[in-house]
## 1
Amino acid sequence: MNNLGSPKIDISRLITHFSSYEIEGNKSHPEKMIEGLSMVSMKLDNDNYEHVKYLSTEGLCKNKRKDFVISLQKELNTEVFELSTCNRVLYVGFGVSCENLEQAILHCSGLKDAPFEYHSGLPVWRKLVEVCSGLDSFILGELQVMSQFRGSVSWHKKNGLLSLFNSSFFDHVVSANRIVRKNLGFNKTTESMMVLAQASLEREVKQNSDKLALVIGSGDMGAKAVEVLGSSGMSKIVVACRNPEKATQRYPEITKYAKVISLDDYLEKQIKPSLIISTIRSSEVTFNESNPLPSTENATVMDFSWPPSVDISAVESGEFLGMEHWIRMSHKLGQEWNYNETIEDSEKLLQKIEDKFTSALSDRSQAKFRTEIYSTLEKLSKGWQNSIEGENSEPNMEAFSREIATWICKQSKPFDTTTLENMVKSSKRQISPNLLQHIADNVNQKLIEIHNSTL
């Protein structure tokens, strides 16, 4: 038989063991928890509209939402966090792959497929910070999603769906969000898109109640725009959408205020509105220089779509109120507001926060590891001290245990028991060779015992 050598002590396994926390009868470890994170999500656009609408729990009663999350957790045998907002759905799983998390969602929801975006490990934390701080929202820095996020965490904890240990992960997200908002100047509660849209439309009605308003798109935002215009006194409203029949079936109330036509009819006919509102859901700009909006002369054009559906090059003349306008309004900032620079600054800031977060996890583990190693060897040293009672020379065994512990804590790679034995036996302290051998054997035996218990 080949000589396999002396047993190896994997220092990383010891760190994991000593820095674990006993939560509800199970060992948990911060860094291992981060490594096991998975998230599948969808941000609303035209391609996934039906999926997001179907999976959203916003319209469910509390009991049905709870039953759905419980069914996911039973399917995966692990905790799952669910968040639904007006423009996204996301699920975070602990100790499970994105593929398995997606399959559980599809199985429990009855869907065959869904265009989820995947994130694993630390990128889950980073993406959640972006979402919660409003960096991934139409209105840059809007606070509503943070309130929804914190409410969802609280709801999961209240219903026993999230353990104390796993919920601490979301506390780090909230903490990072505060830093982002403070450093990027998101220190005021910004107005929601719907509030901004309603106020702007009501002002338009006061000025042009007898003029023609055109709403492009018949989704939630389009239907809301028609309702606001009509109830405020706008007498002439036309809705142009891809499927008029489907639109009136889904939102029959829009026919109370508006005439519904196909988008092709609008593009072909010479309709000359004084107000054009685009609410189209699309992953790409619909109207640009090569596909301009017809009859925009002297008209006010508002783009309420996210991502934007209208480029300024698509507007012949008149006033164009697009994404940057709504961002400025939401923050009440001047023309100097620069969206791209803010996003670039946020990337640098997030990287710094992420580095501190990972460093804190590592430092926390290392500190607990060092504390436990010193404590373990101090307990062993009491036995060593007892073995030399009555001798003329009584070296301080507690001090020697700290010396050995310091050597162990400085090891960055696995080491074999012979290496530790040689270190102990090379001590200059006045200790007999037999006792040094006993100490070396005692320490090695304890470390092997701990090492093997983690396998």
Note: The chain has three domains: 19-188+343-351, 193-331, 366-453.
## 2
Amino acid sequence: MDWKTYEETVKSIYEALGKKQRVKIVCYGHSCKSTGKSGVSHQVDVITSHDVGIHTYKTAIECKYWNEKIDKDKVMKLIEIRDDCNFDKAVIVSKLGFTEDGAKYAEYHNVGLVELREPLDQDLQNRLTSININIQVLIPEILSFNNVCDEEIKLEVKIDDSYYLMPDGDQIEIRDIINDFFQELEQAKQFDQPVFKEILFSNPTYLKIRNTQLELKVNSLKFQGIIKTHTELVEIRENYIWLIMKSIFEKKMFIIYPDSTMREVAYE
């Protein structure tokens, strides 16, 4: 990251954070200027506006992508710009934070201080970054499926298209029979071993297949099934943390991800 990207990032963050409050970016970068009561034009890194009723509040934001902490002299300069241009609020965003006198002077003069930087090792301490979960997957499978008439026959049928017509006229879906069977196995925790089942029908009961003329009188149904278990280790990781943002006086902290999404976390 360089100073220009830093300014663009600050602009994007404030734009995202202010959406619900209808905060707008007035301008940013070298062409972002405001003329004060003195008649002097001041360059400001980012200017935002915020409408509340009939009033519009403007904020001047200075971005300091410097390899040193910001002292009171830099704070004083922004205060002068704020007062000359009648900005309602002033904020300094710094990569390395602020000196003690800079922070005290800013707090006294109601200047917001924000630290925006790449994460350090201590930022990740005591923070859950991944979860390992063992997931057991149950895989039901029918091993054999035979209708018994006067003799046992093997008939290829599509479960969803087939049903039994009972003596009282009721229809029993083969799909429901299979589902009930596997529910029984799951409740009994009968896993990883074949289980045989036979269902005896009252006469006359007929096997029917939709959209065909097939009608087969059956005495019973014999089938065998198994519920196989498969265990998978699933690792859920937090996205790579791109930036840490701390609003010093507001006691707010945000984690920022590479896709520009943000999450507020506990301030430490």
Note: The chain has two domains: 3-124+239-265, 132-233.
## 3
Amino acid sequence: MARERYLLNDEESTIHANQIVPTTAKEKRQNWWFHNKVKVIAGVLIGACLFSLIWSVVSKEKPDYSVMMMTGYGVPSELMDDLEDHFEAYAEDLNGDGDVVVAIQHCCFNTTSSSSYQAAELQAAFVRFAADAGAGDSMLFIYDDVSKAYLSQNDMEGFFGPFGDVTEEYVLWSDLESLKSLTIDRYEKEGATRDSVQNVLGELKVSVRTQEGAAFEKEEKITYREETIEFFDRLRNDTPITE
């Protein structure tokens, strides 16, 4: 208590008299980096995320369907490629360009790590999700409980809801008949098997976003959502359009 009294009665300059102040250029750089590294890493990741979104718009063909996958762990690109190939058998050529393209975007919502890099990565993933949601690019979402909880904490409650003849908010991936015919081609080279992949995917949930938000001010987005529900029904009932 005596020490606290001395501090309360002392001048600010006396309280901080023993602070270590960087003097050399190297020490100043190290001090700046220590206090700003999280912001810098977050800025780089978010910038890279936005660049990726812009690049995908200006340089790549527009997919017929965009599907957002959200998990608390990383997903190998080879598995994503196999899933895209599998989904395309159930998809239609919506834009009439002669090709059927399903693009799966992945957001990693790893909320268990406290490292600076992964905290920035989490921020970048939410920016990617928010940009997709704002534009109405994806209507079909595949996610785990960790991702859903994170979105709910960030004012995204009500983003998913009943759709078509589905009265619940989601359908378990393990209830999709099309999962039984999933072919593992690229990813099997990594030592995976179809059964092991089914076990992992089977725990995920599949939802269609509710018809709310500025994106649905465009009639084409309402139509796109309805077409996505039809696409989902083909996945659920295992009725592919092409073999």
Note: The CA atoms of residues 68 and 141 lie 5 Å apart.
## 4
Amino acid sequence: MKNSKKLVLIMATLLISVQTFATDGYFSTGYGTINKGLAGAGIAFYQGSLINGNPAGAAFLGNKYSLGVNLFNPNRQYTVTGNPTPPGQGTFGLMPGPVESDSKFFVIPSIGANWMLGEKSAISASLFANGGMNTDYPTQTFYDPSSETTGVNLMQMFGNVSYSIKLGEKHSLGATAVLAWQSFEAKGLMSFGGFSSNPQALSGNGADSGFGYGFKIGYLGHLTDNFAIGAMYQSKVTMAEFDDYAGLFAEQGNFDIPSSWTVGFSWKIMEDFTVMGDVKSIMYSEVKSIANPMMPNLYEAMMGDPTKLLGEAEGPGFGWDDMMVYKLGVNYAGVDTWEFRGGVSIGNNPIPSTEVMFNILAPGVIENQVSLGLSKEVGKSGNQFHVAMNYAFNSSVEGPNPLDQPSGQTIEIEMNQFELELGFSF
């Protein structure tokens, strides 16, 4: 027990210290090594449910403990094409050329445990990281003299506690209490101070943090011996406001985590070979800081409308749309003590071409991803070593600089990434 407490403390410290990214827009493509090897598919595949999966799956999982370490390599850059309008014209052009974000390698751990309460129910707990809005450009992108670099850093940690119960032998329900912590920092944005409701709480104030809470519910049903369906809904996670950035985020620093739902199936089409498919929807429109468009809000603020200033409820945001993601995974367990898996994930980019300027800070434009994974039994029965690799293909969005239209200047934001995750379950 003493060693377990030390392990949890070490994992929590690592989770708090990492800068994390995502490729389903704001969310990770998958959680836990098994699920990540399926490109996040498997809402009806209970074997990958322990780390932020369908809570209903835990009733079928048995006693299980899981550790994972993700080695993450995101590559983000923006490119400005065209010379800016000369100074004094009332425009805001950017320096032309490509700029790559620094901070390209990260280590992201996760931990989970499931305990059966008899034959019909289980309680589980997991700790994991999430995020998707980190950039660190080695230049004064927006000409802020107070900072040599430009970017934002969002860090998030989640602690989930779930209860699941079987309904008969083939169906189950699950519910999760979600506790979240997040931290945010922005730098290099003071040039927008004239369009902020609170310029002192806009940029360069270090890291601000706070806690929040939400819930998740899930269903898993084996309709036949070979075919199962699953469904899950996660509520919006209500977070404490970022007071130090009340002049940046809409609603005076509000930055809740949007709700999502997932439905899917798993089908064992032959012995040891399972195909699964999921559809996931993420409701970014619930969070004004994420969904409010930059334009025309910023233009109306420039024209003197105080309700459209940065930090106000209707002020400029990142302009993200709601997102649909489609996932397909396969799992083969027919080679002695080995299992092999793979998956693809296809999503619609949440960032319109009209919103590229602010999203230099958060280029979450990834659409298509592929994954491969494997598991190997080691030692006594039930112990497994897991590997997952994920590649998110380069994706980009190009649009006009809305603050320098006379010049015809354009901005392109782009991102790709590679992940290697190692895990162990026992």
Note: The domain at 2-425 is CATH 2.40.160.60 (Porin).
